[in-house]
Write a structure and sequence with these properties.
The protein is elongated and about 70 Å long. It is an alpha/beta fold. A hairpin with a 2-residue loop joins strand 1 and strand 2. Helices cover about 30% and strands about 20% of the residues. Strands 8-7-6-9-10-12-11 form a 7-stranded mixed sheet, sandwiched between helices. A 5-stranded mixed sheet has the order 2-1-5-3-4, covered by helices on one side.
Length: about 270
């Protein structure tokens, strides 16, 4: 009886193997110098693992570098390939590059979103560093440009457009017109409401993921996702206000920002929110 032949992907290149081939055998045949592997998002599975049709295997040498493997593929190797390809085709807007926006942008970049449009007119000051993804050496720099630099360092495969603009109802279409989803990441409640209203009126097909209520150090479980419609989602406790003097703390702001980014991924991947 003839041996069945299977197709697998090794470092994104298709290869034909015989049925019953183990991970160890594939490594010896295709990349004998490899010291690490990721198989279908699982790191370093047992060498005797039997490979299956359409498996996606990454083999690389941990100490001498990652030559022969696409950087984007390795960075995203712990995510299902099909999901990463969907994320790659997405364009997401980030309105504000502060405590929410800098975390949302970094999280989406690390998830492999294809293009990010980041807009913020402000500059970095010391009081930002308790919760925003900037460094001491970036004090005084424009937030949007500095955040773009940071993202390019860790995720150079993401197309980042940084705009030093103050976002208004008059220019939001020009800034975010190419984005399927926009994350509202402002501080002031009136600015939040103004932007959400403008986007919903002027870009009715665009989905807005907004934030409301991230102040203080209250229970994390109070931060939830409220579905207003299929085009508007609001993350936060819906109550706390920065004007109350409760302050802003990195963990709680980060939780809300991560939830905003998570909603974005769910929407792109077709997951239930």
């Amino acid at each position: 009886m003839a041996t069945a032949h299977l197709q697998i992907f090794i470092n994104d290149t298709p290869h034909t193997i015989s049925g019953g081939t183990t991970l160890a055998q594939a490594r010896a045949r295709f990349f004998p110098e490899a010291t690490a592997s990721i198989l279908n998002t699982i790191t370093d599975p047992a060498p005797e693992t039997i490979l299956r049709n359409n498996d996606r295997l990454y083999l690389y040498e941990r100490r001498s570098g990652f030559t022969g493997v696409d950087l984007r593929s390795l960075v995203l190797a712990r995510q299902p390939h099909e999901a990463s390809e969907k994320l790659r085709g997405a364009c997401v807007g980030i309105a504000g590059a502060g405590g929410l926006g800098s975390v949302v942008a970094e999280t989406l970049a690390r998830s492999g979103i294809g293009r990010l449009v980041i807009a913020d007119f402000d500059i970095i000051e010391p009081s930002n560093l308790n919760r925003q993804r900037f460094r001491l050496g970036q004090l005084g720099q424009p937030k949007a440009a500095a955040l773009a630099d940071n993202l390019r360092e860790c995720c150079p495969f993401v197309d980042v457009i940084a705009l030093p603009d103050r976002i208004t109802p008059d220019n939001c279409v020009r800034i975010f017109g190419t984005c399927a989803i926009v994350c509202e990441c402002f501080d002031a409640a009136e600015n939040k409401a103004e932007l959400v209203t403008a986007l919903r009126l002027q870009l009715p097909g665009c989905i807005v993921v907004a934030a409301s209520g991230i102040a203080g150090c209250g229970p994390a479980r109070s931060i939830t996702v409220r579905t207003v419609s299929d085009k508007l989602y609001i993350v936060g406790d819906q109550q706390s206000d920065t004007a109350s003097g409760a302050g802003l703390f990195a963990p709680r702001v980060g939780i809300a920002a991560s939830m905003q980014a998570h909603v974005v991924l769910q929407l792109i991947l077709g997951e239930k929110i």
